[in-house]
Amino acid sequence: MSASAFLRITRPHNAIVAGLTALLGYLIATGTLTVPSLLLAVIVALITAGGNVINDIFDIDIDRINRPDRPLPAGKISPGAAKTYALALFLSGIVLAALTTPLCLAIALINSVILVAYAARLKRTPLIGNVAVAYLTASVFLFGGAFAGVFGLISNLSLAAITLLATLAREVLKDAEDVEGDAAGGARTLPMIIGIRRTGIFAFACACCAVAVSLLPFGRWWGGFYLAGIAVVDIVIVAGAARGAACTRPDCVRASRATSILRAGMFAALAVFAIAAVI
Ligand SMILES: CC(C)=CCC/C(C)=C/CC/C(C)=C/CC/C(C)=C/COC[C@H](O)COP(=O)(O)O
Ligand SMILES: CC(C)=CCC/C(C)=C/CC/C(C)=C/CC/C(C)=C/COP(=O)(O)OP(=O)(O)O
Ligand SMILES: [Mg+2]
């Protein structure tokens, strides 16, 4: 079992971006970063890594078909070692969160439970799994703001709402892409119940709501740069969701690249938030 396999199973790009997003949440809430606030990035990275490892543990059978290259199906890490590793990651993040504030610790504990519940069960339940991932992604802003107290958390509510809606749109479109594989794996997802077309329309509605909420920070906190930057991002988000809404089959959703366009728009939005927070 190699060190690179233990690193790869954590999906480090995902964990690092999540950790940096927590710092962005603290920056937005306070206008600054401090040495203690850097701990937020470590905590979120550790817990996100734990969530990614536990996800692969529960997904080993379907990943043997869909993603045989991943460390567990490829035999690079044993299931027992992965379970110990996931536990160590979660416990490390929670112990460090105990050094922050009670609100941050509460979010860390709740999110750890949701990450395990998602891997074990929620991801195979229609819409609830999608909402869980959308909440987890949005909660990163709340976690960062919470380090500055309740008002810090409140100051990140609009960004959390934007993130939740946009992530929900993307998650249901990802399910629309994977209908055949999910059905074979015994999962019940939203597209299986309401169909691809209605799922695309639902995702488009969520994306439009995210765009509407994204205009809230303009004028209240951020000025012209934010409006110009978020307008470009909003166009990308709406265009991506519109491509998915036009589809009636999984292969069309995949060919539309709607989920990739949405992902690019979401990461671009992080950059707009970060620049708007410091200029
Ligand atoms: C309308 C509008 C302006 C929407 C933007 C909403 C927004 C700021 C989304 C940011 C979401 C994001 C990328 C947060 C970073 C931290 C995090 C939780 C990352 C987790 O992974 C997200 C990534 O999409 C996973 O990619 P994949 O493995 O392909 O599903
Ligand atoms: C704020 C704190 C303390 C923690 C936040 C925890 C975070 C940021 C989670 C964000 C990343 C996330 C939503 C992970 C969910 C688990 C996961 C890997 C989902 C994707 O798994 P699948 O749906 O099985 O799809 P793949 O495994 O094929 O990617
Ligand atoms: Mg998985």
TrEMBL record:
This protein's record includes keyword Transmembrane helix: yes
Any single Gene Ontology cellular-component annotation: plasma membrane
Annotated transmembrane regions: 12-29, 35-54, 87-120, 132-165, 201-219, 225-246, 258-278
Membrane topology type: Multi-pass membrane protein
Pathway as given in its UniProt record: Membrane lipid metabolism; glycerophospholipid metabolism
Gene3D superfamilies: UbiA prenyltransferase (1.10.357.140)
Domain of life: Archaea
InterPro entries: DGGGP_synth (IPR023547), Prenyltransferase_related (IPR050475), UbiA_prenyltransferase (IPR000537), UbiA_sf (IPR044878)
Broad EC category: transferase
Location within or outside the cell: Cell membrane
Biological processes annotated in GO: glycerophospholipid biosynthetic process
EC id: 2.5.1.42
Keywords: Cell membrane, Lipid biosynthesis, Lipid metabolism, Magnesium, Membrane, Phospholipid biosynthesis, Phospholipid metabolism, Transferase, Transmembrane, Transmembrane helix
Family per record: Belongs to the UbiA prenyltransferase family. DGGGP synthase subfamily.
NCBIfam families reported in the protein's UniProt record: PRK12882.1 (NF009521)
HAMAP family linked: DGGGP_synth
Known function: Prenyltransferase that catalyzes the transfer of the geranylgeranyl moiety of geranylgeranyl diphosphate (GGPP) to the C2 hydroxyl of (S)-3-O-geranylgeranylglyceryl phosphate (GGGP). This reaction is the second ether-bond-formation step in the biosynthesis of archaeal membrane lipids.
Name of the protein in question: Digeranylgeranylglyceryl phosphate synthase
Annotated source species: Methanoculleus receptaculi
